[in-house]
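CORE FACILITY INTAKE
Project code: CF-77B
Contact: R.S. (postdoc)
Sample description: multi-component assembly, two entities in total
Requested service: structural model of the whole complex
Turnaround: standard
Below are the sequence entries exactly as provided by the requester. Do not edit them.
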Amino acid sequence: MLKIFQRLWQVNWAEQWQYRANLIMYLLYWLVSPIIYLAVWTSIAATKGDVNGFTANDFITYYMTLLIVDQITSNIVIHTFAYKIQDGTLSGELIRPIHPMLTNALVNNIAFKGLTIMGLVPIWIILFFLFKPDFGNLALSGILLAIPAMIVGFFIGFLLSAAITALAFWTTRIYSLYEFYYALHLLFSGQFVPLTLMPKLIQDIAQYLPFQLLIYFPIQLILGKLSSAQIVQGYVTAGVWLLISIAFFKWVWREGVKRYSAVGA
Amino acid sequence: MHTLKLLSSFLKVNIQMSLAYRADTVVNILLNVMWLGWELLTLSIIFSNTETIGGWGFGELIALLGVFRLVNTLMIALIWPNTEKFNQSIRDGSMDYTLLQPINSMFLVTFSRITVWRIWDLVLAIVLIVIGVGMSGDTTTPLSILTFLLLTVSGAIVIYSLWIVLIALTFWFTKFDNNVTILQALLDAGRYPVTVYPVWLRIIVTFVIPIAVATTVPLQGLRGELGIGRVLMFIGISIVSFLVASQVWKAGLKRYSGASS
């Protein structure tokens, strides 16, 4: 099995490397909105002193951390997989003895991630000098606690997106569905603003949903903003959602493949 | 007259094409309303924490959202679908047929695809502008409204000219089919007044990829913040950028030699 993953990694890395110009464009595209939110909130905090206890520096460190966390936990599976179901290229992968989504697509996503992070590092350093964040009370323990949280967060996000992608077995409007899912992500993940500044109702709902596990929870872990009770609660929620997303994906995939009859069959 | 006739027949063809996908149109409009809700929510969250950003109030940001949506509609209804078609025509050589038509090729490349349902978005944008200006309590005069309209059109022309230059670069660098992403990427910066951005970002969105010229500037005109000299300057810039873009386009066409040769 390890050998298979190794081989898949080589193939997918080479494939993604070939598209490195596209990748830089994607990275630029993706960078802009966090930087804009950063600018908006720091300008508000600078004129008012603070926003509900958040100083300008708090906002800068939040979004600078978000750039890294989001890059680690996000995935592009809808863009690399949905078309295979729609145009029938999936048939070739289905007859192989390995799971198309959980091996090839997964490794492809991780290869993509590896390359974008390589591109992000120099940009992040430039932004560091432009915004001059003060990560004064950053602790190693926070970073170590955040690593497993980010890995679990990535798998939850990947499995949920994979399940939505697999809905392409039923419907052609898969990108519209995904747009709706992405809007929920924006609303409940802490992407726009630290969740504590969202309306109370949204915060209350957000803590039971998976989206904050991808953004808000790891950022707060890294920045050392959580009490040990909150950390335990976060990890328990992450564990529950991991189980839910595994079950959900497996069910959608099984039913979907049953329905699948490729184009031309 | 000839041009108008052509435009209306382009529109007719595009309406026919989109009628084949009626359910998609409904879904798209619903999603559009959802995003409007999200945009209004983000603004209300911002303004529950402050009274002004960059010197502008809630009403003014609603109006800015309207102007932003106008530019965004230009991008999605015209620029994206035509870019896609253009890039395709360079790759497979069907650009030949465009050039053989007895009409200005830049015109053909601009208007042959139109995402029709987006016209709804134009109406929405105008409603947002009217409501926003009403809420802001800024006094508007016929002159300031005229200034606003002129600056909106000239801002759109600047963006359009930049687009023509970007796609014309494909004549020199055939593999440059990411040409418009950079424009789309920075577009989001148009949602807020540029005065909130740090200087380096302000320079990028004003001079390099001039999104601000099409979003912040028209509203500044409406609020009477720009003197007559500045207004004339922006109109001048739009005329110059259009002339430069058409020259670049012509120079690019000379480089074009079909896909197989």
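Facility notes:
- The radius of gyration of chain A is 20 Å.
- Chain A touches chain B through 33 residues (CB under 8 Å).
Invoice: internal transfer
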